[in-house]
Specification:
The chain folds into two domains: about 1-115 and about 250-264, Roll (Diaminopimelate Epimerase, Chain A, domain 1); about 120-245, Diaminopimelate Epimerase, Chain A, domain 1 (Roll). It has about 260 residues and is of the alpha+beta class. It has helices at about 30-40, 70-85, 130-135, 155-160, 165-170, 210-220, and strands spanning about 1-10, 20-25, 45-55, 55-60, 65-70, 95-100, 100-110, 110-115, 120-125, 140-145, 145-150, 175-180, 190-195, 200-205, 225-230, 235-245, 245-250, 255-264. It contains six helices and 18 strands.
């Protein structure tokens, strides 16, 4: 089997920053076991598989270990590839049928805007072992489905994090989001980092799904919207975030850094 694939850096306009995703363009839906093998071979945080479907495209996402229900940066990368290759007109929205329902993307002025479901954040405790692994004193803690959310005292504290990944891995978890208000004068409203060793991603460089929770969280805290967010992982990335009822609009840019033909 052969098909075109693309290595795209998402939530950035510069190569070697943002979050890398693989995008595989298929002629028809494929076997999930085979897709999992491809994702494990590529070893990126997410590999997207795009196939034609009635009304748009079928889209599935795999980490190197598991299939996931929702992924922001690989959706943005997939839409970017479809416009870049001319499969869609640049004024035509991308429509994806996914495990989280229909998702759409629109392109304007070099920015891609994703329409994603908002994720509810509920104040609550995060396991002491997880806090210990982070090595910081939280301002507040919450849950977002199976994900934990920790608010830190400052952007500097988020940037300085060196969590004990092995200690986290020993817990029963899904992902850990750490966030703080951005420093004044940076042009951003809040910052974050995202750790998910339980699904084979020790630290995700830029996480669209996390901002489905962080957008409403910070809009309520700061009393304004839209917001500008920066994920301050070593690669880093920039997002525009606009909560809209039970949806969140996520804006980002993308750049293709590699394309080729897969044979397997």
């Amino acid at each position: 089997m052969s098909f075109p694939f693309f290595h795209v850096d998402a939530f950035t306009d510069r190569p070697f920053t943002g979050n890398p995703a693989a995008v595989c363009l298929l002629d028809a839906p494929a076997d999930p076991g085979w897709m999992r093998q491809v994702a494990a071979e590529l070893r990126l945080s997410e590999t997207a598989f795009v196939a034609p479907a009635p009304g748009g495209y079928e889209l599935r996402w795999f980490t190197p270990e598991v299939e996931v229900d929702l992924c922001g940066h690989a959706t943005l990368a997939s839409a970017h590839v479809l416009w870049e290759r001319g499969a869609l007109g640049r004024d035509e929205p991308a429509r994806f049928h996914t495990r989280s329902g229909w998702l759409t993307a629109a392109l304007a002025d070099g920015w891609i805007t994703l329409d994603f479901p908002a994720l509810e954040v509920t104040p609550g405790a995060v396991p002491r072992e997880a806090i210990s692994a982070l090595g910081l004193e939280p301002v507040a803690t919450a849950t977002c489905g199976a994900r934990w959310l920790v608010e830190a005292a400052s952007e500097e504290a988020v940037r300085a994090l060196r969590p004990d990944i092995e200690q986290l891995r020993r817990l029963k978890g899904r992902a850990l989001i750490v966030t703080a208000a951005a420093e004044r004068g940076t042009g951003c409203d809040f910052v974050s980092r995202y750790f998910a060793p339980w699904v084979g991603v020790d630290e995700d460089p830029v996480t669209g799904v996390a901002h489905c929770a962080l957008g409403p969280f910070w809009a309520q805290r700061l009393g304004r919207s839209p917001l500008v967010a920066r994920q301050v992982s070593p690669r880093g990335g920039l997002l525009r975030v606009a909560p809209d009822g039970d949806r969140v609009k996520l804006g980002g840019q993308a750049v293709t850094v590699l394309s080729g033909e897969w044979h397997a």
